[in-house]
Design brief:
The protein is mainly β. Helix content is 8%, strand content 42%. The strands form four sheets. Strands 1, 2, 3, 4, 5, 6, 7, 10, 11, 14, 15, 16 and 20 form a 13-stranded mixed beta sheet that branches. Strand 21 and strand 22 form a beta hairpin.
Length: 379
């Protein structure tokens, strides 16, 4: 363990999170680049070693020479009811990074693993697999900033430039990203507080948030600046998270979140763009690897496109008990204002056998106000 820390210059030792004992000090090596989340199944973010003693702090016996532990903050109780406020510091319970809440989104989750009553459900899109209807349930997500010190250590498990916009010029295919911006589900938030006035390193932190001395004894002690409020209002159509789709096949859960990005003119026709965020999570103990993707894309214009390929975004991620999740974003464009997508991931077991994991069908809708281009983070 010490060798791992010396090699990477990074080590985290966090006491195991316990809902009955929430006030535990978080410690990291001075100058480190990340924090380990509280789930015991997560490995060291630096080397992926699964056998980490998370129930105690690092002692002087295995502390790397020349490195000292510093206090990062104190855990707070999980919110079982209500939502976290703007400025709430947290650890991501799956990917382990430090972050801060900007504002909440209220989404509808369509979970195909839950058998619904006939009311309040979404019908299947044309041609998709299965025929059951799916009930929508309201759930809170958060727009957050990721601490840039942690980005290098999560980049193999989650993209840190996943929130993209259409560029404001004639190139209809040009996209740009805001690094370190993410969407986080309420249950993935592990809240903590800190005495630092700038506890998160991100170029937008001090442009969006300010330390409020009047709230210094409260949690969180940060307030939204007018620039954050204006940015949220101006970019609401391109940031808004409204629908979340989820389905589990043989202990592999796939979550899909689609976003409408806008419309551009190209060669005398309209091109509509969406981005979609996908998270795969291994809910079991068997080690598996994603090998192939198979997409079906239906457009309102009447076309049905099939896309096959190796892996996703150039990777074939391994999902294990120690590193159970992988998250990425991609894009799709149609020459129609709406459509549907669905498909499968081909998963390989350690014995070489395969099985297909269903990607829940989801709608591509362009019913947002498209009168102004996205503003990115120019003020």
């Amino acid at each position: 363990m010490a060798a791992c820390a010396i090699r990477r210059g990074f080590l985290t030792t966090v006491s195991k999170y316990n809902r009955k004992h929430t006030h535990r000090i978080l410690s990291i090596i001075e100058g480190s680049s990340g924090l380990e989340a509280k789930r015991p199944r997560l490995p060291c973010l630096a080397c992926g070693l699964p056998n980490i003693q998370q129930t105690r702090f690092m002692s002087s016996r295995n502390r790397p020479e020349g490195k000292v532990l510093e206090t990062v903050g104190v855990f707070e109780a999980l919110k079982q009811h209500g939502k976290y406020e703007t400025g709430q510091l947290f650890l991501h319970s799956v990917f382990g990074y430090r972050g801060i809440v900007l504002f909440p989104w209220h989404a509808r989750i369509y979970d195909r693993d839950v058998i619904p009553p006939m009311s309040d459900s979404k019908p299947e899109p044309p041609g998709s697999h299965g025929s059951k209807e799916v009930k929508g349930k309201t759930h809170t997500y958060y727009q957050v900033l990721i601490d840039t010190r942690d980005c290098p250590h999560i980049s193999q498990r989650s993209q840190t430039e996943a929130v993209t916009f259409l560029a404001n010029h004639d190139d209809s295919r040009a996209l740009y990203a805001i690094p370190g911006l993410d969407y986080v589900s309420h249950e993935d938030i592990l809240p903590y507080n800190s005495t630092e006035q700038v506890p998160i390193q991100h170029e937008l932190f001090e442009r969006f948030l300010m330390f409020n001395p009047d709230k210094a004894t409260q949690a969180p002690p940060f307030s939204a600046r007018d620039t954050l409020k204006a940015w949220q209002e101006k970019n609401h159509p391109w940031l808004e998270l409204s629908d979340v789709h989820r389905e589990t096949t043989e202990n592999i859960r796939v979550t899909v979140i689609p976003f409408y990005m806008g419309m551009r003119d190209a060669q005398n026709s309209h091109v509509y763009w969406w981005r979609y965020c996908i998270r795969l999570e291994n809910m079991g103990s068997e080690v598996v690897q994603l090998r192939e993707r198979h997409w079906r894309i239906f457009s309102l214009s009447g076309t049905l496109e099939t896309v096959r390929g190796r892996g996703v975004v150039g990777r074939e991620p391994v999902l294990s008990k120690e590193q159970p999740a992988f998250q990425y974003s991609s894009h799709v464009s149609l020459q129609a204002p709406s459509g549907h997508m669905w498909g499968t991931f081909r998963i390989e077991r350690t014995d070489g056998s395969h099985f297909d994991v269903r990607i829940p069908p989801f709608s591509l809708e362009s019913n947002k106000d498209d009168k102004a281009p996205p503003a990115g983070y120019t003020f």
